[in-house]
Every structure is written in structure tokens, then in C-alpha cells.
Design goal:
By secondary structure, the chain is an alpha/beta fold. It contains 6 helices and 7 strands; from the N terminus they run ααββαββαβαββα. A hairpin with a 6-residue loop joins strand 6 (about 150-155) and strand 7. It comes from Iconisemion striatum. InterPro entries: PXL2A/B/C.
Amino acid sequence: MGIWSVGLGAVGAALAGIILANTDLCLPKGSKASMEFLEDAELRSTIDDEQVIKAKSLWEKNGAVVMALMELGVPLVAVVKENIGAEIEGFRPHFAGDIYIDEKKHFYGPLQRRMGGLGLFRFGVWQNFIRAWRAGYQGNMNGEGFILGGVFVIGAGDQGILLEHQEKEFGNKVEIADVLQAAKKIVPLK
């Protein structure tokens, strides 16, 4: 009876762990970014390594969707945390906007969210992995791969953050309708 008890206890613990990993209880809690925090970010160009800009200049006149909305006159900008190997060059064919490197990770939040080992037990992570793999995207094992990202829609001038989507798990997408709705609220400066 003793071995059966230990075996059933181990199976029960494993099932409880998998169930817990798939609830939001174990997800990292982020804090919303403030305009002051984002404006101060120094972003390095991925085309001219010497060019460093203040993030505020990206949305100061026309607003920006940071993560296409050219018909609305809103630029699309990607901010990445690192450039390892040819990752950015491999990303360029899939992205029409400018790409900047945020070495201090301001756009990843005042309190960076990380998906640790429990992410391997989340069904959504596996669904997103399979979806990306079927679409031909390949990852690698280089660099820092645990920080969760997000999408910002930032209004022109003093409009502030109109939408902030914090990635809940790897591959968690923002609703495009929400991005478009927020981008339509941007009032460009004259």
C-alpha cells in the first residue's frame, strides 16, 4: 500500500502543478508604464549603430504604435531588447516599420515580467509555439529569452498611452481591433 500511496501522491502533485501552471495565479504581475518612464528610454538604431534617440521623439508629433497603420498616418515602430546574430535582419522582412534596440529595457516595463519554467507547462505557450512553427518562424537558444513583451499605442504630444498590452505568456497577441481603435484616437500635432 505504501508504494501506491507515494505513486498516487506524485501523480496528484504533477496534475496539480500542471493545472496551477495554466491558471493566471502563477503569471508574473507587471505594472503599467508611465509616459515619463517611456519617454526617457534611449533607443539605439538597428541601421546606424551610432544613432541613439530618446523614445519620446517617436511619438511626439504623430503618435506611434510601438510594437500597419500608415493609412492612419501613424508610424509603426518595433522596440527589441537585444540584437543577437542576424535576428533583426531575419525579422525585417516581416515588419514594415523602424526597429530600435532598448538596451535598458524601458519598454518591457518598470517591473519586467518573466515567463519562467512554468511556461513550459502552459497550454497557451505550446499552442503559440506550434502556430509559429507551422508559419515557418524559428527561434534560437541565444540571448535572454524569458522577458515578456507587449504593445503600446502612444498618442502625439501629451495624449499619453492610449493602449498598453502586456504579453501574458509567450506568443500572447494583442487584439488588432483594439490597436486600430486606439490608433484612431491619435490626434497628430500641427
